[in-house]
Amino acid sequence: MRSRFNLYITEYAINSLLRQRYKTLFIFFILSALVFLLSSLFFITNSIKHELNSTVDSLPEITIQKIKAGRQDEIGVEVVDEILQMSGVQSAVARVWGYYYFENAGVNFTLVGIDEYEEQYKESLNSISQKLDFESSVMMLGEGVKRVMKKSYYKEYFNFIKPEGTMKRVYIGASFEGDTELESNDVIVMSKKNIREIFGIDETKATDIVAKVANPNEIATIASKIKLLYPDARVITKDDLKISYQNIFDYKSGVFLALFIVSLFTFFIIIYDKASGLSSEEKREIGILKALGWRIDDVLKERFYEGFIVSFFSYITGIILALFFVYILKAPLMQNIFIGYSQLKTSFTLPFVLDWQSMALIFFLSVPVYIAATIVPAYRSATLEVDEVIR
Question: Are 60 and 211 in contact (CB under 8 A)?
Fold first, then answer.
């Protein structure tokens, strides 16, 4: 096969595809749909993984929760002083937070309390504490919460229902952006005093305690010491959280794997059908070309151009549609396969993460395989004598 690009053979290949326009359009549609499906799934999984890892990385190294009757219970704030006395612990903070169900929209808000002069356990809370008015009942909202409240016509204040059934009015302040949208989208930040009043948490109690460790190599040792000191507590390290998130994600990835296998199976059925042989019309065309003086490498080159044009443009179309579907339309329906809680979680935007490895994998599973399926049967016919092919 001559290596240089032949414009006339390319023109013939394009005309050949146009002559079989319905067949070409059908293959183009099927290949584009398969590339779109696989690319969308890869883009969604990579974006969610990126969000989860970023969220866990922004958390403190150790979280201590008190367990009572198999459920998380409030923990005494005096535990903070005892943990701070441990060697290697950089800081410890008693967190006051909880979930509040907003029935009108069918979503859960995460209410987080902070104090003005305490060290914040996350960088994003530092900037919020500088803007929050701790002297009055004001809250700052994540972008998702702001959208939900706006739809429900809450523009100035919101009345939280306390455990005893009375109302707690909190005025709506500015919105904020966290380190990740997954982390901050459903979050409401206000003073610990207001959070305690809304959830009925005593001054001597907290939801849990988080601790920062200066040396990452000492995290496991310090976690063991805390566990020995408080046998009734659940001690969770950052690595435990990552494993927990990964297990949940792997479980949901089973759905992705099923779709992946179905897509590949469908694709290879098409490839098998195409590689099994040429139609009598296609064989006769090859015979006529050889009778006109075309060599075997010319026939193969023409078939290569046909396969490349169809598969490459199908690949590009599928990738562009997947990018538009995932990052512009926010992957409706498909996103919920992995995120879940569609009725309890405010929606968020997937971060743009372009995974070249996934795109390369889809490329090599589609374009070269389809080109090979186009060339192999053409080679069988091109190597026969002219009269045998035409007959």
Answer: yes
**Helix axis angle, 356-382 to 21-57, nearest 10°:** 160
CA distance 378 to 282: 9
- Separation of alpha carbons 363 and 323, rounded Å: 15
Distance CA 256, CA 264 (A): 12
What is the Cα–Cα distance from 382 to 205, expressed in whole angstroms?
Answer: 83
Query: How far apart are the C-alpha atoms of 112 and 106, rounded to whole Å?
Result: 19
DSSP 326: I
Distances (CA, A) of 304 to 113, 247, 275: 64, 44, 13
Dihedral angle sign, alpha carbons of residues 131, 137, 142, 143: negative
> Which spans in the chain are helix H?
7-19, 21-57, 79-84, 123-131, 143-151, 181-184, 192-199, 219-229, 238-275, 280-291, 296-323, 334-339, 356-382, 386-390
Q: Which residue is associated with the tokens 């998130």?
A: 245
Of all residues in the chain, the percent with pLDDT exceeding 90 is 18
Separation of alpha carbons 78 and 372, rounded Å:
70
3-class DSSP state of 324? helix
Q: Is 105 exposed, middle or buried (0-12, 13-18, 19+ CB in 10 A)?
A: middle
Average pLDDT, the chain: 82
What is the C-alpha separation between 269 and 292, in angstroms, rounded? 34
CA geometry: angle at 38 spanning 35 and 43, to 5°?
Answer: 115
Q: Output the furthest CA–CA distance in the chain (Å, rounded).
A: 97
For residue 301, what are the contacts with CB-CB under 8 A and spacing of at least 6? 1, 2, 6, 9
Q: CB–CB of 209/63 below 8 Å?
A: yes
- pLDDT tens-digit series, residues 151-195: 888 888 999 999 988 999 999 988 887 666 666 678 899 999 999
* pLDDT computed for residue 350 by the predictor: 76
- Could you tell me the two tokens for 335? 């996103």
Q: Which residue's entry shows tokens 């950089």?
A: 90
* CB 2, CB 301: distance < 8 Å: yes
Assign residue 339 a region (left: φ > 0; alpha: ψ between -120 and 50; beta: otherwise): alpha
DSSP 8-state code for residue 120: P
